Amino acid sequence: MKSGDPDLGGVFRRRKFWPQVFWVLLLSAGSALSCVFDSTPLFMAFVLSAFLGLTESGRWSHKTNLLLCTSAAVIASVCGVFSWFDTASIFFLLVAVGGFMLYYRDSGKKFIAAVDRFSSEISGAKDLDSLVFSAAERISEMASGDEVFITAADKAGGMYMPGRAGAQGNTVPRNGGAAWKVFASGRPYLTPRVESGKDLPFCRDARSLMSVPLCAEGEKIGVLQVESMVPDAFSEEDLQKLELIAFVLSHPLYVKLSAEKNDTDEEEAGGK
Amino acid sequence: MILIDMHVHSNYSDGTLSVGSIAKAAKKRHLAFISLTDHDTTEGLAPFMAACRENGVEGLSGIELSADSDFTLHILGFRIDPTNEALQKRLRDIRNNRDDRNHKICRKLQELGFDIHIEDVVLLSRGEVVARPHIARLMMQKGYVSSIGQAFTEYLGSGGKAYVPRERLSAEECISLITEAGGVAVLAHPVQTYLGDDELRSLLGRLKDHGLWGIEAIYPGHSPEQIYNYLKMAEMFDLYPTAGSDFHGPNSHGVDLGIAVSEDFLPWARLGVKI
Hints:
Distance between the termini of chain B: 12 Å
Number of domains of chain B: 2
Strand content of chain B: 15-25%
Oligomer: heterodimer
Helix content of chain A: 55-70%
CATH superfamily of the largest domain in chain B: Metal-dependent hydrolases
Shape of chain B: globular
Strand order of the largest sheet of chain B: 7-6-5-4-3-2-1-8
Order of helices and strands of chain B: EHEHEEHHHHHEHEHEE
Helix content of chain B: 40-55%
CATH class of the largest domain in chain A: Alpha Beta
Radius of gyration of chain A: 24 Å
Number of strands of chain B: 8
Number of strands of chain A: 6
CATH topology of the largest domain in chain A: Beta-Lactamase
CATH topology of the largest domain in chain B: TIM Barrel
Largest interface: A-B, 31 and 30 residues
Strand order of the largest sheet of chain A: 3-2-1-6-5-4
Radius of gyration of chain B: 19 Å
Largest sheet of chain B: 8 strands, mixed
Number of helices of chain B: 9
């Protein structure tokens, strides 16, 4: 990645429970250690790290994180380890850091830069397979390693996975799963808890998924589906972002699918 | 992810819900914050903020001003001071012009043979800001037209038999009023301008020079392609993308309160919002 390029990782906010637990444990351990060594600077370092970590892992609200970190300082003061002046200093430090973050963080402005980077990285793909491979890899990077599946419509009205085994790739069976529902309806789909019998994810162990249609020139050309092994991994906001990524992917995919279709038609005509 | 709504109308303009019901609905849907943006009026802001406090919802003061243009051009203002004298004076002028216009429309309809009187329209509006939809509703109730759409197409809309043009502020004046009232100005639902990309870029360039702060990129009526384009334009002109539903009440087709955005989607502190 060139310096200054937007980072693709973390475009989709993983809603995991464990990072929160980690930061709370760090806060508890840090508070205990600070009490043992009777060190206010050490406590400040731990509480600040925990506050930033909790805010970035993003499952609880800003106010909850502030309350949690301040509570640790209050408990330390009640136990008589720190003075109330120290606690007040920590509280004002956290409010200042939190205020700074609320004043300057503006991911709404930055998201488009990540999408542009995705667009430029997939634009160099030579053929359909490399485009699908490259796009799936980039989207997986954005979704912190989740499984990404790109299906394309075939001439017979079915769907297949380009870049997979076989000349025509893996055919997607018409089983009424999430991908087919999205392809047929043309509407995005998000499920926090996959029902294996109903949603029929591509990955057997998927616990949550989001799926959006790929459309270009008024045609449905396929489906983009992201599956996670974690339940409740995606939000409505992630689905909106995936729709924008699908929009960016649709046009190059349409061009490559058309080129491949023309090649196949020519081969068939030559064969006759 | 949080749910927010930066574009909501109450029955102080053309919405159907009271400010209290909106605050309750926002609480029910767990909105992180909600902004009331009634058309050309700030009258609902004080009761709205009180209702928000009562329901434990974060409220943001707002307004939607209609700018003079050949196309639909609305400017949203957030974080405005509703007591600002200059803003209130201009809003009073707008309301007076609107009342004057309603009288003229009713007179024209009477000349066309319809039994439409301003007193009946005011009664029908039940305290809301009287506007053309109320006249259209009365025409429908009296059986002169079969739908509100027909009333607008044949009589009340631009080119209609009883159409009276409205005096409006220029877009630049709207932005100045909002910024002078301590607020930030945002171009509302750019899709409704029906401008091409080049024309919209030129409009944004012009408005940015006059202090435009943002563009309502996330809006239920925008397709993914349009959202992408508006986000690109926001980046190009260094504008903040905002998100609003333009909720007018339960009768708004398919539009519900709240839009999902990330916790750091906008620098909330600059809007005076505590999330």
